[in-house]
Every structure is written in C-alpha cells, then in structure tokens.
Amino acid sequence: MAHLLNTSFLPSSSALHRKPIFPPSFRAASGNRARTQIQAKIREIFMPALSSTMTEGKIVSWVKSEGDKLSKGESVVVVESDKADMDVETFYDGFLAAIMVEEGGLAAVGSPIALLAETEDEIEQAKSKAGTSSSSSSSPPHAAELTSSSSPEPQSEKVPDNVGPIPEVKAAPSVAVASSHPASEGGKRIVASPYAKKLAKELKVDLGRIVGSGPLGRIVSKDVEAAAVTAASSAAAVGGADAAGGKSAAIEWGSVVPFTTMQSAVSRNMVESLAVPTFRVGYTITTDALDALYKKIKSKGVTMTALLAKATALALVKHPVINSGCRDGKSFTYNSSINIAVAVAIDGGLITPVLQDADKVDIYSLSRKWKELVDKARAKQLQPHEYNTGTFTLSNLGMFGVDRFDAILPPGTGAIMAVGASEPTVVATKDGRIGMKSQMQVNVTADHRVIYGADLASFLQTLSKIIEDPKDLTF
C-alpha cells in the first residue's frame, strides 16, 4: 500500500501569482505560514502522514546524503511512523540539496525535512536557505508528490504459538562481518549514515564489525545502539558486573528516556480510551477439547492464536453488537466485517495486527496469515490496513503464567478480551464428584454506551460453548 509524501516548489516572485495547487491534507498541516522566496526551482520534502493516527514522524535513516543525485523511484529516507518504518521514494529527478531534520530527529506531519534541487547549480543556494525555509514556510504554489513503500524485509523469525503480546527477542548483531552495502567498494569503505557515525564515535563502537540493517545494508543509528548494548552485556557477563544488585548492564538506572514515536501513539490512544465509560465481565472456560484439537492439527501449521481468533469470530457472528463500535458518542456502527485484532508486544511498543474476516477464513489460512502478520509487525512493516481495521481485540498474557487481567479498550471499538493462562483445575462435576479440567479465565472490557451486561454474558456463553465443543473451528 503506497502512502503519499508531499514536496513543493519554493517559488520565485512571479510564481506567487499562480493559484496554489496542493493536496487537502497538506493544507491542514501547513497552515498560513509565510514563505521565503527563492529564485530557483527547489522543492521542499515534507514529513508524510503514514497512518491516520500519525502526528509526527522520526527520521530512521537518510538513504541518500546531501549532494546525491536522485532518480525517480529511488529511496531517499526511512521514516518511522507510530506503527511502522517506511522507505520514502522520490517521484522526481534532482539532487538532495539540504537535509533539515537529521537522523533520530522528529518532525510534525506536513513540516519540511529536506530540500530537493532540480539542478546541481542550485544545491548551494538551497543549503543557504534551508534554515529559513524550515522555520518560515507556507502553502506552495505547486505541489509534487513522493511515495513510500515498505522497507526491505529482514529474515523471518519463528513465531511462538500463542496469542497477544509476543515478546520480541532481539538477535544480537553480528560482530564478524562488515556492512555489505553496494557502495562499500568491496568492503574497503564503511557505509553508514552520518548520525550512525557520530553515535559510534560517542559510544566507542567499531563500525567495521557491524552488519547494517538499513536499506541495502547501510548502517543506521539503531545498529550502533544495539552493538553498544551487546558489548556492554558481554562485558558484564565476563566481569560479573552488577551480579549482587541484579541490575541490567543495558539500562542506565535513574535515566529519563523520551517516548518513541510508537510509545507516544500508544499513550494518546490509552488516554483517549479512558474517556469511554467501560465495564468488565469475567468468565471461566474449559479448554480440554480445544487443547486436544490443537495437538491434533498443530503439525499442519495451526496456531493457538488462530484457533482462539476463529472461535471468537464465530461467537461474534451471533452477537453483532459486541462487534460494533462508537466513535462520536452519538451513534454506533454494526461493522460489516469481523476483523480480529490481536495485541502483540514489539520492541518499543505495542501493535495489533488484524486477522480480517476471521469468521470466513479457514483455520489453516488464518494460521498462515497470523505468522505473516507477526513477522511484519516485528520488522515494523505492517501496512495501515493490517493494524487499524480491527473490530474486536484479543490480548493474552497466558504465556507468562498470568491467570487473569484487565485490558484497556482500543478507541472506536466495542470490546476487548483479555485471555489468561489455561491451567489444570480441580472442579466439581455435575454428578457430585471431583475431577480435573483445564480452564482459562477471560475478562472482556466493553463500551457501556453500546454494550450492556446481558450482551456480554450471552456472548461469553456462546464463546464458551464453541471452545468446549470446537468441531466448527476446522470448517
């Protein structure tokens, strides 16, 4: 899915008499700022809106350096939105004249991050005006567009067979092979971003022993940070540092760490959620039959996540009000599709990949899709429709041995279900005997403006019946 990033001309005085032509989204972002006139054909490159909730983006790495020639379709910069990293590609030939936001820097959506010159002669002129242009820019007389695509996909990781927040185990960067960027001239020159080089010097990290994760193997700041953490952890392991206190060598205790872009987005959503009047209903479900089915079909690639998502979707078919959502506080929508979002913990935040039409997709295809979504989530390559179209959310901490917890309702949805661990439990049978059954606790948090207690109770009864007799899950 392509996303549009805006560029605009910095006009000459004669151009100011022409009628402005630019996307509505940019008008809202740029306001009525006064523009410095530049007698050259120079374009401003603006921070794109990569998702509906994005208000600012972070520059992960500049693929090109100042003065580099650009051809249409080439990647220029990697931008981190609140959900994913995206490569930004140019629609125009020219030269990257001036970088206005360095790697690691934040910029509001619609604000300029660089200048693009049409000819090499205009580079110096653009550089001299970069500071002024970044602080006083307004609606451009002509708008051009750049497009963005997913950054190169790293090697897939094996997905644990569980639901919800899946802790990511970050692989330690290799320390034996140098960057293999095509511009490295056979390994003679280290290809790294300017910010990565600066950071490496500060952290005393040898760039020659790092494999870059940026476009075409370029070393970016996060590679340097990961190498520094690995080196510190190794030193602590050898020297026994902090063994008595139990403190991690990778964390500077007492330090203040600003939110990442994703953490900021999660924070905004959670604060918004607290404005919704919610209530909670818990239920105990016996999972013996589901566990038996899982053991039977696990070898065919079926995951427990897919089984629970499928069971939930089939229950929602019979209780559409639980699948509804309220946005404006005045009405609610019966969603036309049942899209199960599943919370996944990734490095630096939380995201909810969506299994779309989970009630209609067979369990084998659903499992394959889930593995694909988790790989993309960990690589921060999910497209907006893969994480913002959920109509009901599952969150699970059962893999950590948590038996019950409450989840916060995502904005605009009707309900979220918190799933605890399935554990052997001593229970009384209907004939008065004592038996052993595997049971799990689920707690549903719902929007009380739309959903009422009886609605949730009925939904949970249906879900329990499906899980305790799961024959319909494989059809």
Automatic annotation (TrEMBL):
PROSITE patterns, per the entry: BIOTINYL_LIPOYL, LIPOYL, PSBD
UniProt-annotated stretches for the region Disordered: 124-167
Pfam entry (one): Biotin_lipoyl
Domain Peripheral subunit-binding (PSBD): 191-228
GO biological process assignments: pyruvate decarboxylation to acetyl-CoA
Cofactor: (R)-lipoate
MF-aspect GO terms: dihydrolipoyllysine-residue acetyltransferase activity
Residue ranges that the Swiss-Prot or TrEMBL entry lists as coiled coil: none
Domain Lipoyl-binding: 42-117
Protein's UniProt name: Dihydrolipoamide acetyltransferase component of pyruvate dehydrogenase complex
Species the sequence originates in: Acacia crassicarpa (northern wattle)
